[in-house]
Design a protein that fits this description.
single chain, alpha/beta, six-stranded antiparallel sheet
Length: about 350
């Protein structure tokens, strides 16, 4: 049975999600049947009513009131189950409330029962560049979580922001770790639909984002998901040397679990990097799916930090060492593998 591709379209209140969804639905293939699950914080389903007339061959299911990411999450499971038991859609789009923490939705979609029927594709988060100057947004945990979770950041309302605001938005988005698959600008909610199907396999990440590139000009650079016959071999290991520094990183499947305590011990041990063959260690960082939650760990200048994260694409770990000699990565690789459950 072919699994249904599913995308999250997230973003804070007023960022233009419904406009973007209507533009997207208007360009869907005529021979495809799509379904949309929309959640509004209020009890009156205005967005759902608007989306329901956006295209033919479309089913819109509303979950009004609260947030499908938390308080009404059982309703999301029920809604998805009903959709999958009926006419199977060719694609499913989920639009959480602008006040919602969408990471919980990804966790639900990866539940074994739903994962058998749903193929989680790219998460798109809309960002209004003008909001970077407003602490009501930048200080809001949900606003930050939505950006952390995103595989693709869409800078919406690009025609309304000034040059400095757009430059600041690009700088912030390009500096995020882990890196985004793509960063694009959108005017009046329009972006290239192939962004929904950006290949999520890390060794094939195709897009090098460039400022001031309208989404319709991405046709030659955005590669949609193709059928992958071979099974992905995890973890993926990548190393690089330049300018007297050497890096090595490992990427693990999102379902791989790590012991949080062992990760904390590992990052603490980095204060004595010679024992791990990392003389000259300057930086270590990672995001991990643990038995407790998803966490980001950082080590810099002997200081260890850990915090929960909304990121869900995969688990990954990277170290950077300065020096003339490329380290033997065997010891640190063994240590990170030993932290796996």
């Amino acid at each position: 049975m072919n699994r249904t591709p599913v995308n999250l379209i997230s973003g804070f209140l007023g960022v233009g999600k419904t406009t973007a969804m209507m533009k997207l639905l208007a360009t869907k293939p005529q021979d495809e049947y799509w379904a949309v699950v929309v959640n509004e914080f209020g009890e009156v389903g205005i967005d759902g009513a608007s989306l329901s007339v956006a295209a033919d061959g479309l089913q819109v299911a509303e979950v009004p009131g609260g947030c499908i990411c938390c308080t009404t999450s059982p309703m999301l499971r029920v809604t998805l189950t009903k959709l999958l038991k009926g006419k199977r859609p060719d694609r499913l789009l989920i639009e959480p409330s602008g006040l919602g923490h969408p990471a919980g939705i990804i966790d639900l979609l990866r539940d074994p029962f739903l994962a058998a029927a749903l193929d989680v594709r790219a998460v798109l988060t809309l960002l209004d560049a003008r909001h970077l100057q407003d602490s009501r947004y930048t200080s809001h945990e949900t606003w930050r979580d939505q950006l952390q979770l995103a595989d693709v950041i869409v800078l919406s309302k690009a025609d309304l922001a000034d040059v400095d605001q757009m430059a600041a938005a690009w700088k912030m988005a390009q500096a995020m770790f882990p890196p985004k698959l793509a960063i694009v600008e959108a005017v009046q909610g329009e972006f290239y639909p192939a962004l929904l199907d950006l290949e999520l396999h890390p060794e094939r990440w195709p897009v090098a984002s460039t400022p001031n590139t309208h989404s319709n000009n991405l046709r030659k650079r955005v590669k949609p998901v193709a059928a992958v016959e071979e099974e992905q071999v995890w973890p993926i290991k990548k190393s690089h040397s330049a300018l007297g520094s050497h890096s090595c990183g490992w990427i693990f499947a999102p379902e791989t679990l790590f012991f949080s305590a062992k990760l904390a011990d590992l990052f603490d041990a980095l204060s004595s990097p010679q024992s791990l063959g990392l003389a000259g260690l300057s930086r270590a960082k990672g995001v991990f799916h643990t038995e407790r939650d998803w966490y980001r760990f950082d080590w810099v200048d002997g200081m260890l930090g850990a915090t929960t994260t909304a990121y869900r694409r995969d688990s990954r770990f990277e170290v950077i060492v300065s020096g003339d000699t490329v380290p033997d990565w065997v010891a640190i690789e063994a240590a990170i593998l030993a932290a796996m459950i």
